[in-house]
């Protein structure tokens, strides 16, 4: 079975999209290869997001902030699905994606904005990670190879709620 490429988008590509990339790439189904990017990528990955991704077994050298323009190039990996995980990136004008992948918005609050103790901050990241994991588990359980593009997009969008 061919793994599906999923691109997770967020504005700065430092937290939620990184978690999506790591979760998809390490998903127990083996059905996904995760990627992430941002509209205005930052310089550093949030240390809590990085620690959680490392705990999943995701390689540190794969975690770096990158522009979504990288994935709109002709030599970029072709995406099957593109999922926006933050509100601000969802309202921005995205590049034209090669192959017209199915798209959806799985919005999560920005865990890096949580104030409080280190435990409270980590809990916010874990909540996002668990939410993404639930959605990926449900998506992986679908018979994707038997669904057409509109049906897949519909299923992706159902998972947003």
UniProtKB/TrEMBL annotation:
Biological process terms in GO annotation: response to arsenic-containing substance
Domain of life: Bacteria
Signal peptide extent: none
Keyword Isomerase carried by entry: no
UniProt cross-references to InterPro entries, sorted A to Z: Ptyr_pPase, Ptyr_pPase_sf
Keyword annotations of the record: Arsenical resistance
Residues covered by the Phosphotyrosine protein phosphatase I domain: 4-142
Protein name, per record: Protein tyrosine phosphatase
